[in-house]
Design goal:
Chain A is α/β, with parallel strands linked by helices. Helices cover 41% and strands 22% of the residues of chain A. Chain A has helices at 28-40, 58-72, 85-93, 106-116; strands at residues 6-9, 14-18, 22-23, 45-49, 55-56, 77-81, 101-103. In chain A, the strands form two sheets. Chain A has a five-stranded mixed beta sheet, sandwiched between helices. A two-stranded parallel sheet of chain A has the order 3-5. In chain A, a hairpin with a 4-residue loop joins strand 1 and strand 2. The termini of chain A are far apart. By secondary structure, chain B is of the alpha+beta class. Chain B folds into two domains: 3-104, Transcription Regulator spoIIAA; 116-253, Heat Shock Protein 90 (2-Layer Sandwich), CATH 3.30.565. In chain B, the strands form two sheets. A five-stranded antiparallel beta sheet of chain B has the order 5-6-7-9-8. A four-stranded mixed beta sheet of chain B has the order 1-2-3-4, with helices on one face. The longest helix of chain B is centred in the middle third of the chain and has 22 residues, at 150-171. The termini of chain B are far apart. Classes of the chains: A alpha/beta, B alpha+beta. At the A-B interface, helix 2 and helix 3 of A face helix 6, helix 7 and helix 8 of B.
Chain lengths: 117, 256
């Protein structure tokens, strides 16, 4: 699969962002840019669908962690979903499983966003 | 000086790239030229690791030789040196032997990876993104040969990526320096060693304290790589060799 970050509005306040195979130093800045632009477009919730993600570096983690409070401050959130066991392990090693909102599927992530919205 | 029959001279390139050893070496080159040597071979077998200053020394030799029409070539150049010379478009100036040596070295590395994974693995690669990614793919292939479980392989890949990226982004001025890597498995452990000639950086002195909430509040987007590496590894040691080379050694379990 092409390593492109795609985005698709789910509704007026939720944007689904889907990274490609890797989220690392080479494209973390692009991820940050997409997330921050979403906020300027008044999306309060972001769903990061990691279904295709095979590798997540520390910079990739930083692209989510470094932007998440901008959404939580306004009552929104960044919800990650379809997280593989390897990627989940990275979150566990960095003690992020209790801090990030992690959903099993995009449907579940959408429900979380509805609840918080 | 190894051989000197007036026309053909072999000189030993010193491992040190500055100071007395280099001055003596350059004087030997000048003396050989003064004696009428028209074919000067430089034995590079001592250059285990390559710094840009080594290339500068070779360039000084080339300038002196070309001024009098003498031919200069390399003997036993390490892969890192050949690749650096190729990137700088200087390989041809030192004869095709260098390119042949690179080919031979690639075959040797490939053979060692496929026939005796248990004995270890070594690689050298440039610090640009593509070269690092290619090196990771070769390392993953080696781990598959070693029958390392997928989860552990992912952890080792993460360590490799974070260390190599740290060297590329923070340790070296550009994309054209070389990282020398080797891995040695023993029992259920693997020891990975990274060597580079970038600025000194001792990650063992960096803490692993990491507070997600604090990082999020401060919108921190970078700086988690060292924490991730240290938490995935069992042991990490760092040394600075000869005042020029960073050597980072990381030990981790293989899950075998």
């Amino acid at each position: 699969m092409e390593n492109r970050i795609s985005q698709q509005p789910l509704n007026d306040f939720t944007l689904v962002i889907t990274p490609g195979k890797t989220l690392d130093n080479t494209n973390a800045h692009e991820m940050v840019q997409i997330i921050l632009e979403a906020q300027t477009k008044e999306y309060s919730h972001i769903i990061v669908d990691m279904a295709h993600l095979e590798f997540l570096s520390s910079a990739g983690v930083g692209s989510i962690l470094g932007t998440i409070d901008s959404f939580r401050d306004i009552g929104g959130d960044i919800v990650v979903c379809n997280v593989s066991s390897h990627i989940l392990h990275v979150f566990e090693v960095l003690d992020l499983t209790g801090y990030l909102t992690i959903a099993a599927t995009e449907t579940e992530a959408a429900e979380q966003c509805q609840t918080k919205g | 000086m190894l051989v000197d029959n007036k026309q053909h001279t072999v000189l030993h390139v010193p491992a040190d790239h500055e100071g007395q050893a280099v001055e003596t070496f350059i004087r030997d080159v000048e003396a050989a030229i003064a004696r009428g040597a028209m074919d000067i071979a430089l034995d590079c077998s001592s250059l285990a690791l390559v710094a840009s200053a080594n290339v500068n020394v070779l360039w000084q030799v080339y300038v002196r030789c070309s001024a009098v029409g003498a031919k200069v070539s390399l003997r036993k150049p390490p892969r890192g040196l050949v690749r650096v010379l190729q990137v700088l478009d200087l390989a041809d100036l030192f004869g095709c032997e260098a390119v042949d040596m690179l080919h031979t070295a690639k075959i040797r590395v490939a053979a060692s990876a496929t026939t005796s994974a248990r004995e270890g693995y070594s690689d050298e690669f440039l610090t640009d993104v593509d070269s690092v990614n290619e090196a990771i793919e070769r390392f993953l292939a080696y781990l598959r040969d070693l029958a390392v479980p997928e989860k552990t392989s992912f952890e080792l890949r993460t360590i490799f990526y974070e260390v190599a990226t740290n060297i590329r982004v923070h340790g070296i001025a550009g994309d054209k320096d070389v990282i020398v890597f080797c891995a040695r498995p023993q029992d259920s452990r693997i020891t990975m060693t990274f060597a580079d000639s970038g600025v000194p950086f001792d990650i063992t002195r960096q803490g692993t304290d990491f507070d997600p909430q604090k990082a999020a509040k401060s919108h921190q987007k970078r700086g988690f790589g060292i924490t991730l590496t240290k938490r995935l590894a069992d042991n990490i040691s760092y040394s600075r060799k000869n005042g020029a080379i960073n050597v980072l050694t990381i030990e981790a379990g293989t899950g075998i």
